[in-house]
Amino acid sequence: MDHFLEHFLLVNRREFFGRSACGIGSAALASLLAKDGMSAEGSPRPETRIGGLDGVPHFAPKAKRVIYLFQNGAPTHCDLFDYKPKLIELHGKPVPEAAVAGKRFSTMTGSPSGKLMLAPVEPFAQHGQSGAWVSNFLPHTAKIADEICFVKSMHTEAVNHAPGISFFLSGAELPGRPTLGAWLSYGLGSDTESLPSFVVMTSVSKGTTCGQIFYDFYWGAGFLPSKYQGVKFRGGSEPVLYLDNPDGLSRQVRRTQLDAIAKLNEIKQREFADPEIATRIAQYEMAYRMQTSVPELADFSDESAATLEMYGPSVREPGTFAHNCLMARRLAERGVRFVQVMHAGWDQHGSLTTELYTQCKDTDQPSAALVKDLKQRGLLDDTLVIWGGEFGRTPFLQGNINDRPKWGRDHHPYAFTLWMAGGGIKPGISYGESDELAMSAVKDPVHVHDFQATLLHLLGIDHERLTFKFQGRHFRLTDVHGKVVKGILA
């Protein structure tokens, strides 16, 4: 095989013209013109936008940014949001065979036949003018019920955690596809030069027995150039590693070094037109700018006492969910496009009456505070906040009905709840319904691809038109599925 010919066969037309030497110069010029307000007349792209595709957004967006509060391990809809009196009535009785016939569950459940129904652990009450049902587990979320759209008819295909999370975030159960934040960075570009357009933070409740792992492919770029992948911010005093200059190296000397490295990389870029070389150039520059932007971002000294109190007592502790929620708000107001806050510990196979209390205590107040904080600052209207996991939990019991301290629920893909707020979402509504046992979505069902299509729609993107050619096929986030859920749009 002629290696020169092989290289150009692997470079598609868009990459060839967009990433050649001319492409670099054109992109740089376009960026400078856009900053000066000289972008093409009629273009929908914001004047301050850096990168992105021409013609995207496809129409006027309702949201400019997304904060996704992803709850790894699958929160139990039966105990938090989906109030079903029938579960109380059938508590301790075998699950009706008709309700589970033909359904596939995890290997921990195996056959559901004979499993006993389990009532909610805590009572429910209606809240706000909307009358939304919320469990006593979540008193702070209950107080913002009129700001929230509860989607109670979610359903998915995966029955295990990693495939389920990957499916929500990338549209595929197998790793290797671009994730939501990567797609948005690729299509919409960035609104800030000093921070990444896609940031990820993770946390775990203390003392949990949940063994959830945060895999890097949850924020990967897949087959997109790697500059679109999420940048993980760690807990602690140094959110991003290796930003500081070594001892004895001044910022001016560092700038000189980066300029020299950039010239060498540009020579290689002209020779090979490799998108990963362009990524390397961009990431060196981003790291240099983050030397000043990240320390300022992580310094909460300018936050009022009232704001810190609103997020809860753990907000000052780096690495906690509360701290990450406040960081998310600060990232959003600094122009970061997609913030993915992931919190593990919801996998309550045998800890509904113990660890679920801790999990809700750690996440309830910060989640509600984020929505209230964004609203107070005028950011909620164009910031989409999402709260939810990869699937729900079974309405029937996992464990021994006579051993209450070890009650649990298994994985359940057929009906579950997530909520959304701001960013063009209709507030104060509950959309869709599960059946009387919270077993199956029966009214206005929303598939994962429908959710993804709706998210992109709120950001001004037609999910069928945002594509990337890879291995001879035009891929998209929603694969060949998905429809916009118009009933939840404001």
Walk me through the structure.
It contains 15 helices and 17 strands. The chain is α/β, with parallel strands linked by helices and 490 residues long. The protein has one domain: Alkaline Phosphatase, subunit A, CATH 3.40.720. Strands 1, 4, 5, 6, 7, 8, 11, 12 and 15 form a nine-stranded mixed beta sheet that branches. A two-stranded antiparallel ribbon has the order 2-3.
The CATH topology comes to Alkaline Phosphatase, subunit A
What is the terminal separation in angstroms?
Answer: 56 Å
Instruction: Tell me the helix content.
Output: 25-40%
**CATH class group:** Alpha Beta
CATH superfamily: Alkaline Phosphatase, subunit A
Regions with pLDDT < 50 over 5+ consecutive residues? 1-10, 12-47
Please state the CA-atom Rg, rounded to the nearest Å. 24 Å
Shape: globular
